[in-house]
Design brief:
With 264 residues, this protein is α/β, with parallel strands linked by helices. The protein has two domains: 7-212, Spore Coat Polysaccharide Biosynthesis Protein SpsA, Chain A (Alpha-Beta Complex); 219-263, no CATH class. 37% of the residues lie in helices and 21% in strands. The protein is globular, with a radius of gyration of 18 Å.
Length: 264
């Protein structure tokens, strides 16, 4: 089937006027113009939507849906449901504080995956976790599809910000909105069933901002609970053991955070 665009990039937003321009600048400078951008906004009250409208002339296509949501995975589901017929062949989820690392990212990714087997439903690139408060980054490179598959039952095998997913997978499997920080991991455990489904590109794709909900000490308990829930759901013995090892051997982390929050 032919789709209008090769890529669709989806971003959920809510009062992100401070960081959104750097994402949109990185999209506007792409040499490959074979993409559209979908923004699912949670009824922002700042200048987020004004910024979105400003970039209409600089991107091939911008699709906007504004509606309150219950979190990032609910927002992603809404975007997919609203614009299903406009989705490109490959879908990438980027945060409002993420950027594509240079102007050639989409061109390089397209060259890497345009002729791969239809059995491949994921294409993963490299990324940099970047801490803007310290101006330092950590490079993350995936070795091969077999390694990613082998660690999937005790660790998120590849981050969503540099993971391209075929349209058919995105439209057939919803994100579980009962998860607040682990819905993308749950999605992968439901859909990543053998190593042959993953193509490792070794293309540096994304500079992913640190300090969000998945990094915060305030969400540590939630992340621990959701991880345990997820491993039980998917019958991952290694994942369950990892959770209890963390609880037994690193209780100081929980105590430190609890004491810190109690003093605020």
């Amino acid at each position: 089937m032919h789709y209008k665009f090769f890529f669709t990039i989806i971003t959920s937003t809510y009062n992100v006027a401070a960081t959104l321009p750097r994402l949109l600048d990185s999209l506007a400078h792409q040499t490959c113009r074979d993409f559209n951008w979908i923004v699912q906004d949670g009824a922002s009250t700042d200048n987020t939507m004004t910024i979105v409208e400003h970039y209409r002339a600089h991107l091939p296509e911008i699709l906007v849906h504004t509606e309150k949501d219950s979190g990032i995975y609910d927002a992603w589901n809404k975007a997919i449901e609203c614009w299903q017929v406009r989705l490109g062949e490959w879908v990438l989820f980027l945060g409002a504080d993420d950027i594509l690392v240079d102007a050639y990212v989409l061109e390089n990714v397209k060259n890497s995956i345009k002729n791969i087997s239809t059995d491949v439903i994921f294409a993963a690139g490299d990324l940099v976790h970047f801490d803007y408060s310290k101006n330092i980054g950590k490079f993350v490179r995936l070795k091969d599809s077999y390694e990613c598959f082998s660690k999937r039952d005790f660790k998120l095998p590849m981050p969503h910000s540099s993971l391209f997913t075929r349209r058919e997978v995105i439209t057939s499997t919803k994100f579980d909105t009962s998860f607040k920080v682990s819905g993308d991991y749950d999605f992968l455990l439901k859909t990543f069933n053998n190593p042959y489904q993953l193509h490792i590109m070794h293309v540096l794709v994304t500079q992913m901002s640190r300090g969000g909900i998945s990094d915060s000490d305030d969400t540590l308990f939630m992340r621990f609970y959701e991880s345990l829930r997820l491993y039980i759901r998917h019958r991952s013995l290694r994942g369950i053991i990892k959770c209890f090892d963390f609880l037994i051997y690193k209780p100081k982390i929980f105590i430190k955070i609890y004491l810190h929050k109690s003093c605020i």
